[in-house]
Recover the amino acids of this structure.
């Protein structure tokens, strides 16, 4: 079996999930780590490849992937499918993660740990709430405490216009969030309540956040931690939303200290909960 491989799966609505897997050098693995990106993120963003490499070096199988409606493929310099980005919803992300767990992670027949950064952390919480008995643990990094950060004025615009502009500063493209994302949440608010979701997760949870997060306030992780109960560990690190990691991170430069701390904490947690 290859140590590093690329793969695809059929995800939500039959769209493609693009993924990569890193495996330990010796062939023997202790657990499986599934890595989920956030809003406008992708599997090769910033620290994700470094997290996967560190996990494999520690004896974990690491699967990272693009959600099928992220708009991203293996073409890293553009959102090749902005039409899919506009159609993305929490339900589609939950479906994708369930597919990756069933068709990639579960095949390893090892303890499974889920990791999600930013909005990916919320996708992990929503998914794990319905299957935590099958998981060894979950890690969120810089996760919001709500699935809908929009104010009432913004919601009104989205309902009226059918979509809302959300430009990408990375690529310069004008992307849009579609109304279906809002309609889905308003049709079933309980399903997409993050505080309810984390309270329902029985496996160990590690919640990581940057003290200087400029995108998601550190208060969010305290709200999640309080709702998570006694099997929830909270770790506040220096750094911002990406733990000071640039995208792309220069290959020959050392990782920022906050990034390295976040990666080490994630890997050590995955090993500790996997027996």
């Amino acid at each position: 079996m290859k140590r590093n491989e690329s793969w695809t799966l059929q995800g939500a609505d039959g769209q493609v999930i693009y993924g990569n897997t890193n495996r330990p050098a010796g062939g023997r693995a202790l657990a499986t780590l599934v890595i989920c990106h956030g809003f406008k993120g992708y599997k090769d963003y910033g620290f994700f490849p470094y997290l996967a490499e560190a996990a494999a070096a520690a004896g974990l199988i690491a699967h990272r992937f693009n959600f099928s409606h992220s708009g991203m493929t293996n073409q890293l310099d553009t959102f090749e499918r902005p039409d899919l980005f506009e159609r993305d919803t929490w339900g589609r992300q939950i479906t994708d993660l369930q597919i990756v767990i069933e068709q990639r992670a579960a095949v390893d027949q090892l303890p499974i740990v889920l990791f999600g950064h930013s909005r990916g952390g919320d996708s992990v919480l929503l998914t794990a709430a319905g299957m935590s008995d099958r998981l060894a643990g979950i890690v969120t990094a810089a996760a919001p405490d709500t699935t809908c950060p929009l104010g009432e004025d913004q919601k009104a615009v989205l309902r009226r216009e059918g979509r809302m502009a959300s430009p990408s500063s990375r690529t310069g493209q004008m992307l849009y969030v579609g109304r279906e994302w809002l309609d889905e949440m308003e049709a079933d608010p309980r399903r997409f309540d993050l505080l309810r979701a984390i309270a329902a997760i029985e496996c160990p949870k590690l919640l990581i956040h940057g003290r200087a997060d400029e995108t998601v306030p550190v208060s969010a992780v305290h709200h999640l931690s309080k709702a998570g109960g006694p099997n929830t560990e909270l770790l506040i690190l220096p750094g911002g939303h990406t733990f000071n990691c640039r995208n792309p991170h220069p290959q020959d430069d050392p990782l920022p200290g906050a990034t390295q701390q976040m990666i080490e904490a994630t890997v050590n947690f995955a090993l500790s909960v996997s027996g």
User: Anything to note?
Assistant: Residues 257-273 form the longest helix (17 residues).
